[in-house]
Amino acid sequence: MKDIKRIVLTGGPCAGKTTALVRIVEYFSNLGFKVFTVPEVPTMYSQGGWSYLTPNPDLYYEGELAILQTQLALEDSFTRLAEVCTKPTFIVCDRGTMDISAYIAPEMWKDITGKCGTSSNDLRKRYDAVLHLVSAADGAEQYYTLATNSARYEQANEEGLQLARDLDKKVNRAWTGHPHLRVINNHDDFDTKLNRVIMEIGNVLGLPQTVKEERVYIVELTGELPECVESEITQTYLVADPDCEVRLRRRNWDGEVVNVHKTKKRISATEVLETERQVSNALYESLLQQADPYRATIRKTRRSFIWKGQYFEIDTFHAPLDNLVMLQTKGVEVGEQVNMPPFIRVIEDVTGNPEYYNYNIALRR
Q1: What pLDDT digit, counting tens, does each position of 28-74 carry?
Q2: Residues 6+ apart with CB under 8 A from 289
Q3: What angle do CA 188, 221, 184 make, to 5 degrees?
Q4: What gap in Å lies between CA 158 and CA 215, rounded to an integer?
Q5: d(Cα 275, Cα 264) in Å, to the nearest integer?
Q6: Which among 64, 119, 190, 259 is most buried, taking Cβ atoms within 10 Å?
Q7: b/e burial code for range 39-68 (CB count within 10 A of at least 16 → b)
Q8: Are 187 and 246 in contact (CB under 8 A)?
Q9: In angstroms, rounded to a whole number, what is the distance separating the alpha carbons of residues 109 and 107?
Q10: Please, which pLDDT band fits residue 152 given cuts at 50, 70 and 90?
């Protein structure tokens, strides 16, 4: 059976998904891929006459159930099409099943997933990658518009912008725990945002990528963090070839556990090839037997959040170091300003300093 990659394009209102889909199809078609796109199901129902704002609770419930059932059926149908396609193929979903959970009460979500014979954990596993495009309402307010989606009810005023920001964070939290969740920042140049989407999809497809250094800082927290996702990470490096880095990571959050096996292979001075796969608890325990004896296990607490359109991760290390707090940005381009949060004091910029790569922090001394 063909290995068909399913990729979710998600995010809050006015994030640029529609434009990104056009760019994805154009770019990868030119590389010889057939790109199938699953349309946004909630919009289909809204345009068909159903509304989130209906005062009828039974109509609301049946609509949400129908959206999930339709989403599952459409994705499965497009997968069958992809399996018989003779070209290299992948599927892009304009929103995925977990997006639905961001718009309804947890009790209703549990009920409708039960009726569909599934769960949140199973639904996340349906996809190979989730690309979350940050809403323009967060850090790019001047570009927020209703013109691209007539069904959008988050208006372009301050109340609507705040609602859009809140939805953006809810959607991001819904996908938390997916091993290949990537948050795509806002930028002054929208092409930069689109190029990051293209790069992340290329990574999922196993295409070589240009080596990029993410901004990394040693920091001190000076105030309260905004709403964030907190998780505990255990990271073990496995024995590998000299030009290859193999990492086994277990992430715990909200009572859930995800294990990810990642391989990073440098194929030239400027290019790297990365592959990720989720592994079962049994395989995780088995792979630990291959732990690199020269590297200690890293244990750290990660707090992730979006601030003014940019994505941040704060790692507080517990082992092998216990006095190190590092902040990492994701997707900030060279020469672009970091929107450093006011509750962060930068002690040192260690971007590109090998001493602070996790791979080297793990070295036994």
Answers
A1: 998 889 999 999 999 999 999 999 899 999 999 999 999 999 999 99
A2: none
A3: 30
A4: 31
A5: 7
A6: 64
A7: ebbbbebbeeebeeeeeeeeebeebbbebb
A8: no
A9: 5
A10: very low
